[in-house]
Amino acid sequence: MKLLIFGPPGSGKGTYSTRVAAALKIPRIVMSDLLREESKKGSQLGKLIAIYMDKGQFAPDDAAIKLFKERLKKPDVKKGFISDGFPRNVAQAKEFDITNKFDAVIGILAAKEILIEKITARRICSNSQCDGNFNIADIHKTIDGVEYILPPLLPKKKGICDKCGSKLFQRKDDMIEVIGPRLEVFEEQTKPLYDYYEGKVPFIKIYMNRAPEIIVANILEEIKKLKLS
Predict the structure, then answer these.
(1) pLDDT of the residue at 150
(2) Which of 19, 46, 133, 173 fits as disulfide partner to 216, beta carbons 3.0 to 4.6 Å?
(3) Which of 2, 28, 118, 122 is catalytic?
(4) Please, is 188 exposed, middle or buried when counting C-beta atoms within 10 Å of its C-beta (0-12, 13-18, 19+)?
(5) pLDDT given for residue 229 in this prediction
(6) Mean pLDDT of 175-203
(7) Does the annotation count 13 as an active-site position?
(8) Domains in the chain, ordered, with CATH?
(9) Which of 2, 71, 88, 123 is catalytic?
(10) Average pLDDT in the 71-77 region?
């Protein structure tokens, strides 16, 4: 089962994909993690990636495609995977489609105002080997007819990851001064994926307007209906 989950920054992809992957017992491939890992290596490719990330921009297509293809060579993806963050644009999607096909695509929707609140409230585990992901925002409002009831996802101990005990921090690209460029890049490059995939593969569209456990349950129910495995 090859799944893709995508949506604007702050739409909950990380939380949803982590839980969906665990429920389906398939690995989660996170492009942002692959990019950060390469950046930390200090390689020529990593230095190039760092320049883009510091500006809140996507890495070059060639870099993302190269890292994703290398990740697919690992044996744990033989039974499937859920991709979070790749492809990020239509060019990457077309390149992936040459040799692979997603069995289903999950598109997350949310109002810009909600996204900004969620992004600035996100706190990530400082341990690169841990996927601890928390959010301190408590949102209850209606925008364009959609009611958003989003309780905070707090750690048991303030500032400390529940999973490994490491300190939590706010990523540089989650800070207010970087959010604008990130959302603009999404609108220009990633949003067209909605049109690209609709009609090509089973497409699950869902609003990020309830607690993660509710959204994840809805996603899993829709995947079950597709009878992919």
Answers:
(1) 94
(2) 19
(3) 122
(4) exposed
(5) 63
(6) 89
(7) yes
(8) 2-111+178-226 (3.40.50.300)
(9) 88
(10) 92
Beta-strand relationship, 139-143 and 2-6: unpaired
Considering the candidates 13, 19, 71, 123, report the single residue annotated as catalytic: 13
Is 19 among the residues known to form the active site? no
Catalytic-residue membership of 28: no
For the question of residue 88 being annotated catalytic, the response is yes
Catalytic residue check, 73: no
Question: At residue 215, does pLDDT exceed 90?
Answer: yes
In the chain, alpha helices (H): 13-24, 31-41, 44-54, 61-71, 90-99, 112-120, 176-185, 193-197, 212-226
Strand arrangement, sheet containing 122-125: 133-135, 122-125, 168-169
Residue 56 has pLDDT above 80, yes or no: no
Q: Quick one: how many helices (H) and strands (E) in the chain?
A: 9, 10
| This model's pTM is above 0.85 | no
Q: Tell me which residue has tokens 């033989």.
A: 78
pLDDT of 146-164, one tens digit each?
A: 999 999 989 999 999 999 9
Residue of 36, 66, 69, 171 with catalytic role: 171
Can you tell me the distance from the alpha carbon of 186 to that of 146, in angstroms, rounded to the nearest whole number? 21
